[in-house]
């Protein structure tokens, strides 16, 4: 690995921060070990439930917008939830406008 251009200079530049780098690595590694040692059935159920919710969010968005290719857009679950929240807010604002 020493024959990679700039390797030695990069290591030299990082040396003053090495303790911080090692501390961060140890923290992230402990988190990974903790997560990977958990019981797999529970994690599998959570992941499956996440996929089911994502599927139905996609169906809802497809029906609402009349766009049949929402799933192909591969929106993140965060983006899906954001779209739903905005729709929910718009619906509430429309209802308030009707009341006034």
Descriptive account of the structure:
- The chain is mainly alpha-helical and 100 residues long.
- The chain has five helices and no strands.
- The model has no long low-confidence stretch (mean pLDDT 77).
Largest sheet: none
Give the H and E element order: HHHHH
Strand content: under 5%
Radius of gyration: 24 Å
General form:
elongated
Low-confidence stretches: none
Oligomer: single chain
Q: By helix and strand content, what is the structural category?
A: mainly alpha
Number of strands: 0
Helix content: over 70%
Mean pLDDT: 77
Short account of what is shown:
The chain has 100 residues and is mostly helical. It has helices spanning 7-14, 18-36, 40-65, 70-73, 77-99. Helix content is 80%, strand content 0%.
Keywords:
single chain; 100 residues; mainly alpha; 5 helices; 80% helix; 0% strand; elongated
Produce the secondary structure layout.
Blueprint: H1 7-14, H2 18-36, H3 40-65, H4 70-73, H5 77-99
Helix pairs in contact: 3-5
């Amino acid at each position: 690995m020493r024959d990679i251009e700039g390797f030695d200079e990069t290591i030299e530049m990082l040396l003053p921060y090495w303790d911080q780098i090692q501390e961060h690595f140890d923290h992230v590694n402990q988190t990974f070990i903790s997560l990977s040692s958990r019981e797999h059935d529970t994690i599998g159920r959570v992941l499956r439930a996440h996929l089911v919710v994502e599927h139905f969010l996609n169906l809802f968005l497809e029906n609402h917008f009349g766009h049949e290719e929402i799933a192909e857009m591969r929106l993140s679950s965060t983006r899906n939830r954001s779209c739903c929240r905005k729709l929910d807010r718009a619906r509430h604002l429309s209802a308030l406008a009707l009341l006034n």
